[in-house]
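Researcher: Please predict.
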Amino acid sequence: MVNSLCLTLLTCVPLLWLVRESAGMPDPARRDLLMREEASRQTGGLLALTAAEQKLDANLHRFKEQEMAATLFLPALHFFKAKPLIEKSAIYRLLQKMPKGAALHIHSSSLVSAEWLVKNVTYRPHCYICFTWDNSVRFLFSTLQPFPRWDCFYWQLLESLRARIGDNAGFDSSLIQHLTLFTENPDGEYPNQDVVWEKFEKAFIAAAGLITHAPVLRDYIYQGLEELHRDNVMYLELRSGLSRTYELDGTIHDKIWTLKLFQEVTSKFKQNYPEFFGARIIISVHRALSVSEVKAAVTEAIQLKKDFPDVVAGFDMVGRENSGRTLWDFREALSLPAELGASLPYFFHAGETGQSPYVRESLKIKMQPQMQSFGLGGKKAFLPCLPELAVAVSCFRLTAKVVAPPHPVVIGLPAATQRRYSPAWISE
């Protein structure tokens, strides 16, 4: 037996040496060199970590392995079901403490948590509510009972309604449901994109009557900045249509007033938090408008950009992509800045749905020279002729059915993850 083993070793060792010398066996030294080269090409790969940073990196890697080995893999669950588990995650708690940089392209109607709107704003004096025929709500601040209108026949003072109901906690929870998408049965209540889009837009419309009240808007902006700052976000770009704001006496304020208010509140916030970099607004209009209306909006945005260069970041078009008009349909209006030699950066979002001519046409408008970034541009990966640009790939329920996912194409490219409609999901 021993003789047989010795004979085997004497035969195999020279053979292994011969294979290695003839490049038939991987060289461990070359393998280590290759791994170090790959690591150096990763983001931050050339940084020398301190002892404390190495310890943090090791802990984060350990947390990651533990969560990947767990019975429930959270990314595989619907967010509404995974949310309470995510909040208990060691990685989540660690990420909460880390600086986030910038929050870009945030919708103005989802800047602040729905809980703050309900438990703070709806308890203010003179706040009326109306329950609509399509199972939604409207809010309005008024010294007198508002007049009936087509979608609201009967307005009730919230203070009186709460007194009659007697269950503030339960009633507030029902109001929060009107302002968010959260449900215990997401797959049953949102069987397709049409249903969830309808609820999504209803939530924004319901919140509008609260947010556009001038005294509320001032507090709303500051509260939004505080919530972002608590999460270590240091810069904000807010997408807003600059809706008209109203006072209790019926006075209506225009877009210039709103921009001045935003500028004033941001300046005050920076005084209180000097480490905060600042905030700007991306003016937006809905793609349901006509070409002439969009042209007028672009012209107005150009002027507002001149008047408020430190406040206005640029321009965007909003609204559901597949059921609306493409960005290409508005090319005449969107070409105005280039024709006039004016500065109006574009921050469009498109390519958020399945492959279709509509999506491809929307992506083509990216060729505009003033294009800055392209949110939700998942399909850009399949149009390689387009110039390089900042691309955000959406990962939420409105786009759960990604027919042609871009991930195989964009793996290895710089990417960033951020919130867009967090309050609508009751998330941070």
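Model: The mean pLDDT is 80.
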